[in-house]
Each structure stands twice: as C-alpha cells, then as structure tokens.
Amino acid sequence: MKTALITGINGQDGAYLAELLLEKGYMVHGVKRRSSLINTDRIDHLYQDPHDEDVRFKLHYGDMTDSTNLIRIIQETRPDEVYNLAAMSHVKVSFDTPEYTANADGIGTLRLLEAIRILGLEKKTRIYQASTSELYGLVQEVPQSETTPFYPRSPYAVAKLYAYWITVNYREAYNMYACNGILFNHESPLRGETFVTRKITRAVAAIALGLQKKLFLGNLDARRDWGHAKDYVRAMWLILQQDKPADFVIATGITTPVREFVTMAFNEVGVTIEFNGEGVDEKGYVKSVSNSEAPLSVGQEVVCVDPSYFRPTEVELLIGDPTKAKTKLGWKPTYDLPALCKEMVSSDLAILRKDSKTQREHLV
Ligand code: NDP
Ligand code: GDR
C-alpha cells in the first residue's frame, strides 16, 4: 500500500485529492493546523476513528511555518508521495499579510523539501508542489505554457515563485523526484467563499432565494481559465506517476471574463442580467426573470462594483496551454465552465435552502 502525505488537506484541493487517493488504495496522512473552531467540513466524510483497525486516513497537527513538526510528521509517516497544497492562497489577502505569505508559501516549501532530505528520504519520496498560473502575472505571452516567462504580481505570486524554483533546484541538486504543477484557477462547490466564482454562485443563490439584495465585486474585466478541482487533483496524481519528474501546466485553454461568469450564474436561476456603465460605475440589472420563485423585478440593480476589491496590481488575463499535460500525462478536463457553474449554483442553492430552513426551525 502506498502512503501519501497531503499538506492543506482540509482545503478545497486537499479534500478532493484525499478522496481520490483513498479510492486508489493509498494510506492518506494529512497535515492540518490548529484552529479555535473545527474546520474540517470538507473532509469529515473521510474521517476514520483512529481506534479502528485498518485505518487509512489520519490527520496530524502541523504548520508550514514550523520545520520541527514537518520533520516529525515525515519521519513518522515516511510517505511515498507528498502533495504540498498548504498555503495562504488568497491573492488579495497576500497584500495585507505579505511576510506571513512569504513564510508559509515560500519558505514553507523549502522546509518540506529539507525535511525529506534531512531524513534521507530523497530517493523514496516524490514531491508535488502546488504552483500557480499567478506566476505568469503580467502578460508576457498567450496562451501560457511551461516555457512562458514569469512576472508575478502579488506577494502571493512572489512567494510561489520562490517555491517553484526551490522545487526545481532540489530536483536538479539532489536528484529528487520533485515537480511543479502549474495549475490555473480551479473551482468547485468546495471552493472557499471569498474566491470570485464561489462568491458569485453563493450570492446568486442568496439573491434568488430573497436572502440577499446585491452582489458587490471588484474587477469585472479580469479573465481567468477556470476548471473543476476534481479534474485538477487527478492531474496532480498523474504528475507523480511518471518515469521522470517534470513540471506541467494544467488548464482548460479557455478564458472567460468575471462579468460573463456572473451572467452565467444568474442564468442558472432563471434570471437574465445586463451590464451598463463603465469602470466603478458599472452595474448589472435584471433584464428578465423566467423563474417565478425569484423575488426580482425587471430593471432591478443586482451587481455593483466596489473598488475595495481591486488589487494594487492585477493579473488581467490568464489562459493556459495544457498540451504537455495532454500528450505526456494523457490528462484532459471532463468539466467545462457551464457544467462547473451549474454544479456550484445548485450546491449553493441547496446549502442556503437547508440553512434558512434550519434558521426558521430555530425561530419556531
Ligand atoms: P485553500 O485555500 O482551499 O486551502 C489551503 C489549505 O492550506 C488549507 O487547508 C489551509 O488551512 C492550509 N494552510 C494555510 N496556511 C497554512 C499553514 N501555514 N500551515 C499549514 N496549512 C496551512 O486552497 P486550494 O485548495 O484552492 O489550493 C491548494 C493549493 O494550490 C494552494 O497552495 C494554492 O495556493 C494552490 N493553487 C490553487 C489554485 C486554485 O485555483 N484553487 C490554482 C493554483 C494553485 P486552513 O483551513 O486552516 O486555512
Ligand atoms: P485568483 O482568484 O486571484 O485568480 O487566485 P480569485 O477568485 O480571488 O480572483 C479571480 C479574479 O476575479 C477578480 N475579482 C474578484 N476576486 C475576488 N476574490 N473577489 C471579488 O469580489 C472580485 N471581483 C473581481 C480578481 O480581481 C481576479 O482578477 C486563485 C487562488 O486560488 C490562488 O491561490 C491560485 O493560485 C490562483 O487562483 C490560480
């Protein structure tokens, strides 16, 4: 039985990857940092009582900013594969916490690589580093591939640039099987609520149910190459199953503006919207409603721009070229954006219906 260690196991990708590896018969260890409230919702269905026999899923407390615990966990678990998914992953927040982001996302990766080396596991343990399309930042060429020059545009991206190169360096210096997956944006019903797609699908569901009036967003012109997290964790696993270590771009090859994703999400609840105005004065209005349940009227303003969501330096356009992954890994996405959006809106509708029912029951 193969053993995997996943840092950031309770994040979006950690949850899908843990599920995939358990299906494949792995023993899965996860690193989770301590929090004042339990935040394992995404992986609670995978939990196994540690007192049971044949347990294949185990959580360990740890933090990417503490090398002592990383060394201890790796020593204890001696993994065949390490997936380094832990990170302060919010680009806008990284401008508020740049030093912490550098420590967790940049130096954290070094700590993990060093722990494996110090313990003499550099020939046994394969390492996946969660690199990002944010490395491309200011557009140098489109579509972006493994050979496109990097130009990071946020403390997050700069920290991830260090992590990218230290992974390459450990591969070259110590002959380690260490790889970067340069993943473009990937979303799902498990996406954190402050990333734009989930913020939109949650708000659209809330507006359709009469629980929210308006959706406030930042840059509507930004374009992203959005895929489904389920497809992307499959790519992570494939990257570690090759004869030789290498770096791969994982993307759909299609880019869509934020504004269009908003329109798509409203369509899912039977509401057509149109945008008017420019820059900070741009607004989205209801054009028609075919869903009699939605408490909306034609002409109603449902989307506004709030400049506080703008970033000091923005990444305007991301579009990936996944040719290498398709040819070398045999990977291709199974979801397109409309299917992803549909799944997210329908999941948020179900969550909010359940929450509002629970709240009504509390009031009775
Ligand atoms: P999430 O934000 O959903 O999950 C991040 C995970 O990292 C959480 O479990 C979080 O724990 C954990 N974490 C944060 N800081 C630390 C720390 N100091 N020590 C230990 N754990 C920590 O991100 P995703 O699942 O979306 O992304 C996974 C990885 O892939 C990240 O590294 C991200 O930067 C990268 N990436 C993501 C892309 C995407 O589109 N989703 C695209 C490209 C790269 P907690 O719950 O306690 O906060
Ligand atoms: P991103 O994702 O920065 O690409 O990083 P996010 O969803 O936060 O932003 C995408 C684009 O939407 C614009 N935007 C808004 N973003 C947020 N969060 N909130 C808003 O209200 C809003 N309005 C417009 C942003 O300006 C941006 O252009 C994600 C993270 O998962 C990273 O960890 C990962 O590395 C990259 O994707 C690839």
Automatic annotation (TrEMBL):
Pfam families: GDP_Man_Dehyd. Its EC number is 4.2.1.47. The keyword NADP applies. GO terms for molecular function: GDP-mannose 4,6-dehydratase activity. Its cofactor is NADP(+). Keywords: Lyase, NADP. CDD domains: GDP_MD_SDR_e (cd05260). Signal peptide: none annotated. It catalyses: GDP-alpha-D-mannose = GDP-4-dehydro-alpha-D-rhamnose + H2O. The keyword NADP applies. Residues 5-344 form the NAD(P)-binding domain. NCBIfam families: gmd. Catalyzes the conversion of GDP-D-mannose to GDP-4-dehydro-6-deoxy-D-mannose. Belongs to the NAD(P)-dependent epimerase/dehydratase family. GDP-mannose 4,6-dehydratase subfamily. This is GDP-mannose 4,6-dehydratase. It comes from Parapedobacter deserti. The lineage of its organism: Bacteria, Pseudomonadati, Bacteroidota, Sphingobacteriia, Sphingobacteriales.
